[in-house]
Amino acid sequence: MRHGPTGAPKGAVVRFSCYCAVQQRYCCDRVAEIASIPDVTEGTPPLRKISDTIARLTALQARLAPQAATSGVSDRLHALARFGTNPGALAAKFHVPDGIDKGAPLVVVLHGCTQTAAGYDHHSGWSQLADEAGFALLFPEQQRANNPNLCFNWFLPGDARRGSGEALSIREMIETMVATHCLDRNRIFITGLSAGGAMASAMLASYPEVFAGGAIIAGLPYGSATTIPEAFDRMRGHGGPSEENLQRLVQNASTHEGPWPRISIWHGSADPTVAPSNAEALVTQWRGVHALEKRPTRSEASGRHTRHVWHDAEGLAAIEVNIIAGMAHGTPLGGDGLGTPGPFMLDVGISSTREIARVWGIADADKREPAPLRPDAAAKGERPSLGLSAAEKVKVDATTRQPRSSPGSAANASGVKTIIEDALKAAGLMR
C-alpha cells in the first residue's frame, strides 16, 4: 500500500493544519506545415512483445539518468506540507513572491521524469519570472515509491482521472494554495514537460473548470495510453485513439460544458523521446470541445520557431502549437537570462517559460494577450466557483479574503487550518 508524506494510507481522510508562514517571493510562413507532422491516428500496429517494451524502458532510463544531477541545484521553493487526503502520495513545493497582491495568478508546474521540482524550477526560470511578474507557483513532485524514475503516472487511469490518485492530489494542492494565499480562481494555469506535460493534459481534461489555460511541453494527449506498453507506443507515435475518440476522452472526463481552458502546445521537430505527432494529436483532441476547424486561423514564424493558432468564434486564441525546428526532447529556453540550460532544458533561442506566461497574460504586460474572463463570471461580476454551490462559494470567498496574520501566531495557524479545511470540504475534496 502506498502512503503519502504524512504516513496515511492512500485514500485515507487526513485532518491537517497549514499556516501562511512564508511570503517569499515561436521558421516558415506555410500554414500547411502542421499537416506534415505524422498522423498519430493512422492505424494501430500489432501488440509489441514485452521484450521490446523492456528494451525501450532500459534505453529511456539510461537516456534520462543524467537528469538526476539537477537534484543538487539551489532550491528556492518551500514545502507544502499538508494539503488534504493526498491519495496520489505526492509531495509539493511552492513559491510565493514577497509582497504578492491578493488575487494573484497561480501557475502549477509539473517536472519531467527523473527531475525534481527544484531542478525544474532552476532550469526553467519559473520562480525568477514569478518574482518579476507577481504570481504564485505550485510544484507537485513525484516520489520514487510511486514511480522509480520520478515520472508522473499519466498512463495509469487510477492516477490520471478526476477524483482519484495523483490527479486528485494535485487538485487538493491547488485548493490549498488558493485558500492559503488568497489567489485568483479565474487565473489558475498549468504546465509540464514530457510526463509532466502528459499529466498536465490529464489535469486540463479532468478539471477543466479549474484552469484558465495550460501549456503542454513535449507531452501527450489525455487518455491516449492506459498501460506501460501503450505509453511507450504513443511516445514513439504508434497507434492511439481515432480523432473521434481523442475528442470524446476530454468530453467524458468531466461533466463540464465550458468554457474550456486555452491550450498551448510546445514540441521539438527532432524529439526522439516523444514523437512530434503527439503535438498534432493534442490539437486534434482539444479542437473538439473548442469547436474549431482543422486548419489554423493564423501562422507565424521567427527563426526556428513556428507558431500556429486556432481562434474561437469570439476571435480568442483557443489553441496554439509551437514547433521548434531541430529541437530534441526538452523545454525550450532562450538567451534572456531566464533559467539555465541542462539535460532536457534546451537553449534554442526562445524562452517557453516567458512566452507561455505572456500568452496567459500574467507577464510582460505591454505585450500580453489577457486570458478572457469566463462568460458566466463576467455576467455576474464574480469569480468562478470551481463547481461549488452558491452558498459554498460565498463561504470560500469570504474566508480567502481574510488578511494574513503574522507567521508564528498559534491563532493564525488554527485559523488558516480552518480556512483550508472548509475550502477543501466545500470543493468536495475532503470529508
From TrEMBL:
UniProt-annotated stretches for the region Disordered: 369-415
Protein name: Esterase, PHB depolymerase family
Entry keyword annotation includes Flavoprotein: no
Keywords in alphabetical order: Hydrolase, Signal
InterPro entries: AB_hydrolase_fold (IPR029058), Esterase_phb (IPR010126), Plant_Biomass_Hydrol_Est (IPR050955)
A Pfam family assignment: Esterase_PHB
SUPFAM superfamilies per the UniProt record, alphabetical: alpha/beta-Hydrolases (SSF53474)
Domain of life: Bacteria
Segments of skewed composition (Polar residues): 399-412
Native organism: Mesorhizobium australicum
Keyword check for Repeat: no
Organism ancestry: Bacteria, Pseudomonadati, Pseudomonadota, Alphaproteobacteria, Hyphomicrobiales
Listed GO CC annotations: extracellular region
GO molecular function terms noted in the UniProt entry: hydrolase activity
Ranges of compositional bias, category Basic and acidic residues: 369-383
